[in-house]
């Protein structure tokens, strides 16, 4: 026998998407509940772990809308659904302003002080995460912001149920009427006028990762809380929802040692050194377009039969330049925290030190250097672009190499929504009463070059729009 509770809105998941939806809905006068599987006061989620940098495809969300639209179209090769692009670019600045009214604080960094290689850091949730390698989130901007949102929600009469795992949607004649959940051993039905799925994606579900992203999920590094296990997507599919863009994730190239060494994730990333040089397999051959950057490389690495047999290779010039160009750069933090870094005066010696075929690596680096100097990068196989990152010749000793792995942060695909966060069926009609926001949704990010738009802004804007749509304000 199930206990029963009744609300206007029930949010599944208490990350940034769920708490923004809930706090905004409560502000608009609705009776709201958040169901959160994590039982602890500071339950883990990607939002809490995040660096708190607000951007739209690495651009300042306060830029004119047209610039932001162009940035998303470019990075996703026009893959992003136009109505979602319109919605996020139209509402991102409003979302940040609203977040400030709820108590979020931002460190504003003057654009002239920013390094172009790391994109916009114009808005960072304060207190800012210090530039250290390991997880460091307690009392930092994202953690503090989630707490502020929860306070705002409780003040408006809303509730957060920790230790409560949503298991299925209550559907009646195609209309969503609530959520069935588990609280310990008890079953509880949360009846509601609308449900918003905000469970954070499916990166923590090895079966789904294997189905869509990698033949060897256990060989990827979970570069986040791993709490998104695809429950929301499963429930939405059962309710008749369409799903989209499941073949891409937001992630980074990490040291292979990050698999075991917690001092080496979520930073430093090897993205910039790998993108300036080459990424090879054990035979010394390239297999991805490094010029498309770290998020793309992490995806292609994951798709390899052996995602742990991969090495980034670069030279002294790159090490002194790209190697230092990040808030937590691999030079010098990689070695300092126990990460493997091989150096040698010749490429053949480097190959031996890495356990890579020397003849293969020598040929790869020779062909690559020829292509860089003669400006024929497109003739390489696979072709190397300079779309997101410039290729640099690997010529100045010492040469460097590091075993690398793919760090998966969140899945970019999921439940198909429209510009009001309504969940759509395959025929693009909305399922009455069902909404989704944040990393559980698909259609904005991904595409052939795995375009990244921004996890926090996606959660904030589509959470806010879900609440406003439910309240009849849109
Ligand atoms: C290390 C790191 C750094 C990052 N830095 C940035 C950054 O600087 N800028 C940026 O834009 N993005 C960043 N991101 C990405 C960003 O954090 C995420 O995209 C975003 O926070 C996702 O929010 P969400 O609410 O959709 O999911 P989450 O924050 O993951 O929240 C989902 C919640 O749903 C809960 N849940 C799951 N299943 C159920 C269920 N069945 N029932 C009830 N609850 C459930 C989970 O426990 C979780 O608490 C970073 C991520 C990481 C890990």
CATH topology descriptor of the largest domain: FAD/NAD(P)-binding domain
The helicity comes to 25-40%
Number of strands: 20
Beta-strand content estimate: 15-25%
Structurally, the number of domains stands at: 2
**CATH homologous superfamily label of the largest domain:** FAD/NAD(P)-binding domain
Class by alpha and beta content: alpha/beta
Number of helices: 14
Unreliable stretches, pLDDT < 50, 5 or more residues? Answer: none
Give average pLDDT, whole number.
96
Distance between the termini: 38 Å
CATH architecture of the largest domain: 3-Layer(bba) Sandwich
The major β-sheet equals: 8 strands, mixed
Explain what the structure shows.
The chain is α/β, with parallel strands linked by helices and 474 residues long. It has 2 domains: 3-246 and 412-470, FAD/NAD(P)-binding domain (3-Layer(bba) Sandwich), CATH 3.50.50; 251-408, Flavocytochrome C3, Chain A, domain 1, CATH 3.90.700. 31% of the residues lie in helices and 22% in strands. It contains 14 helices and 20 strands. It has helices at 16-27, 46-49, 65-75, 82-101, 141-155, 206-212, 231-238, 271-276, 293-303, 316-320, 330-336, 347-354, 358-373, 455-470, and strands at residues 3-12, 32-35, 53-54, 106-108, 123-125, 159-161, 164-172, 175-183, 186-197, 221-222, 243-244, 249-255, 278-281, 310-314, 342-344, 399-411, 414-416, 422-424, 430-436, 441-442. The strands form 4 sheets. Strands 1, 2, 6, 7, 8, 9, 18 and 19 form an 8-stranded mixed β-sheet that branches. The radius of gyration is 23 Å and the shape is elongated. The mean pLDDT is 96. Bound molecules: flavin-adenine dinucleotide (FAD). Flavin-adenine dinucleotide binds at residues 12-18, 35-38, 43, 45-47, 49-53, 165-166, 198-200, 224-225, 227-228, 231, 266, 409-410, 438-439, 454-457, 459.
